[in-house]
């Protein structure tokens, strides 16, 4: 290219919500009160036992590189967590600690995907997923999902969309932006369908723990051949620490390890020591209280939005998002989000960040703020929309 | 592939030194005393003012995501550092804070390199560089460098090795594993040569600050079109925190920012707040004392190795490495390194990790340990080799 920028950069898009966020900050700086329903991270701080463990690590001089795959103690703690929480045995050797789930996604895609090969994923979905594939010169086939499948991929989708060049399918449960879960039966059928095609399933479980009805079962209990991505960001409240993990099948351990060495050297050392406290009973108690709080927020916001006229056909069971059809109010959700911000001071994320499946008819509401703020947001929306 | 692993993984190699390091740890566990000259990170802890700033940030709840390109205050602090230290004006907008220099390398390569395009780099060189190119389906042309060019690339190399498919040249000054510098004139000639070919130069400056004769001039003073990689790891003693930065030309800001959003979300928040203290006078005083200590170690180890019969034709002026020709003792440096470890308890890195240019004749000695340990190491080598 004449400007010297690699071609992939034409296809990689910035987060559109950033412009809205910047405008929201600008309005706040001018003294306007803004209700933030656009932010995809918990408003809670990191639980104090984790913070204290991080501080203790810094005081103890734990500031040097760890092994590329992470501290042995942390990999064991994660394995124990699977054992205690889900009754599943995962060898610590299969667990690779990464710089956030972002690092885990890069590793997973890079060990699996050849140039020209395709990844199937749900549309709407987490925006970055498709750009990891693009980075590696792979392709993404975004499958438009609807309420009929709870916005999740199903084995039927595999029948319809799998091509000879498809190598990977990627699902997230609970999902961003819809908050919906894959049922255990649905997940099992999907695994069977993908594996029968000699493909590999990547399962994004970063919102595990933040589930309000039933329990999200880890894909690790259903197959030894899936790659599972998880994170200390969302459930454990450690977003800014940038720490996640990847579980790989036995035959991928060597590839994933050498890739981690070369791409990352290692994940953050203080974060890893801090995360050792994430599985302590006193931390889990804090996290459970937060989970209950998130559920209360959902139970407040969801009926509120529905009664205003937003259409949410599937009750979101996890994460902290409600993906709402706003076509009763607008056929251009981006302009509508701008309008809501300017007129009501309520900030939300327009559908455009999540794919090409009717984004202009959808808004994502994140309940990552207090019930009081949610109440204020609903009040403002009601006053404006009715 | 039948095993389901992407083809690129055949070409991406693990660090060979890891096997030696594991064996060294095993011997230590058995009670053997090991002199570690294989480790590529400072033995010093993070300076206390930086640690304290990190702790204060944790106490203040600075645990949420920062902007993708980093904290505004940190980008300004880095810009001020260029201004005060080198008298160079770099707009903070051009500075992108990354998860280590590793993150900066990934961004730099990804915004520049199309599949099939080539990166020129010195051989020997930092092992990961070529794998970032491979990840992106680019090619690496390793240029065998010798003492004739201080193991650095020169504009003559560009005349000989630049091909129609070459897009990027990458240099490091001071370099790993040779510790040599590019002169200001050499760097200027290289930039001119690369830019006249409509290519882009990436300059790895992560060992800036650790220079023992003269001063390494940043490439930012010579061109507005280079991409410069730097890090808080080596000079600032923050390896395990995983924090670096990338300076891009104006026309790359947008591409680098959206890529950082999608690949990383952001660098570690506690690390960024900690790094704000990296430029304080009390920190710089500590760092200067360490620089002097490193110089003393080099001035001790280098003549010692030479007098034992290791051939080091160019005096390393920076970083903390000595790349020594060991062909007087062995024509298989990997086996020789194993032998030295087993027989003398001295751990060094064999040349194989740094490329294909006579690796079997070279060892890298890192002076990342005390002068007492260096003394002990030399004593053991002398007793064994003579």
TrEMBL record, chains A, B:
It holds the Pfam family Aminotran_1_2. Its cofactor is pyridoxal 5'-phosphate. InterPro entries: Aminotransferase_I/II_large, AspAT/PAT-like, NHTrfase_class1_PyrdxlP-BS, PyrdxlP-dep_Trfase, PyrdxlP-dep_Trfase_major. Gene3D superfamilies: Type I PLP-dependent aspartate aminotransferase-like (Major domain). GO terms for molecular function: pyridoxal phosphate binding; transaminase activity. SUPFAM superfamilies: PLP-dependent transferases. Residues 34-381 form the Aminotransferase class I/classII large domain. PROSITE patterns: AA_TRANSFER_CLASS_1 (PS00105). The keyword Transferase applies. NCBIfam families: PRK07337.1, PRK08960.1. This is Aminotransferase.
